[in-house]
Amino acid sequence: MSTRVVGTAGHVDHGKSTLISALTGIDPDRLQEERDRGMTIDLGFAWLRTPGGMDIGVVDVPGHQDFIRNMLAGVGSIDAVILVIAADEGVRPQTREHLAILGLLGIDRGVIALTKRDLIDDEWAELVRAEVRAALADTPLATAPLVEVSATTRI
Ligand SMILES: Nc1nc2c(ncn2[C@@H]2O[C@H](COP(=O)(O)OP(=O)(O)OP(=O)(O)O)[C@@H](O)[C@H]2O)c(=O)[nH]1
Ligand SMILES: [Mg+2]
Q1: Nearest Cα to Cα of residue 98 among 150, 148, 62
Q2: Of the bound ligands, which one is closest to the alpha carbon of residue 16?
Q3: In the chain, which residues have pLDDT < 50?
Q4: What is the pLDDT of residue 100?
Q5: What is the 8-class DSSP label of residue 12?
Q6: Which atom of ligand 1 sits closest to the CA of residue 150?
Q7: Residue 56, SS3 per DSSP
Q8: What integer pLDDT is reported at residue 1 of this predicted model?
Q9: Which residues line ligand 1 (CB under 6 A)?
Q10: Residues 56/3, Cβ–Cβ less than 8 Å
Q11: Ligand 1 closest atom vs CA 14
């Protein structure tokens, strides 16, 4: 069976690397400086095998705007994206910038991960979901599934 490559995208600190660690058991922040600063600087890599036996390679990108070139290098050849949006912050500048880049590259398959769900209540979640859907409305990810997750409580 062929391998597929999934990339992350989203604003700094929204939980991309933590989610990839939780999903794969592999910490994509491999550089010492990344671990010291608690921030992704360069591309990170992980992989998982689905219950159906498919191998999925994961490219984890930095969210900070200073490292946008690395992000661009990472998403150049992905098959699908996990767009990460922190539930407590909602849509932020690099959420929109990464969305625009994905659109230009023609990446139209993906899932929206609303992370840090443990930090908000149900009412707030409803507001954030509406905000996210509005931000996605005119993009190729308009109808992408949205999943609420917490890497902390593993919901
Ligand atoms: N409470 C809570 N905190 C989380 C969750 N996911 C991530 N965090 C915390 O959020 C912070 C940022 O997480 P990262 O995974 O480094 O975020 P990132 O999107 O990879 O950041 P960059 O790669 O620098 O853009 C860390 O302190 C995490 O522990 C979650 O589901 N719940
Ligand atoms: Mg990261």
Answers
A1: 62
A2: 1
A3: none
A4: 96
A5: T
A6: 31
A7: strand
A8: 60
A9: 12-18, 38-40, 62-64, 84, 115-116, 118-119, 150-152
A10: yes
A11: 19
